[in-house]
Design brief:
This protein has 192 residues and is α+β, with helices and mostly antiparallel strands. The chain is built from 5 helices and 8 strands. It is globular and about 75 Å long.
Amino acid sequence: MLFGGCKHYIKKSTRRMIAVALGLFIFMMGTIGYSYFNAAHIQYKIKQKVCASVLKYEENLLKTVEECKSNKADVLISYKTQDDSAGFLYYKKLNSETMNEVFKIFRLWYIETREDEIVRFSILPTIQSLLWSNYECGFYYTKEDKAVDVIWGGECNGEIEGIIPGIGKYWYKTEQIDDNWWFYESKSGWNK
């Protein structure tokens, strides 16, 4: 009799676990489906939020730009590495309160300082990046206040679309946020 009760309990608990797993699976598929089919709307909301934040925290961002220009590293990254060679440096090693705040507020992946007076702030990729053909976005500061392709280099007139050998289709768009500040977004490597 004792074992009969255990079987009933095990069957009941197994059914509950299956129901929970099925519920989680349906929730995940719904989230992925929503993200995929509403990509344009979500990308627009991301752009609005980033642009509003750049305007709100412009003073801290300008301090960050100056710190980046005076730093030895070409790229400040959001994760620790074993070796700080090749121009990469974990941003917390600078012990800068402003830099720490900027990385946290904007959820940055990295900040790249280039020789042409451009400082690029790349936002941490999300699951949407994978769903939307390697979607990447961020913003940049340029002293000359002109539209540029911060990923492949060169000036642009706001939007570029083409094919890059070995990568596939490439799309890039940049829009001015304020004086010297630009928002950018790109997709690469997808086929239609």
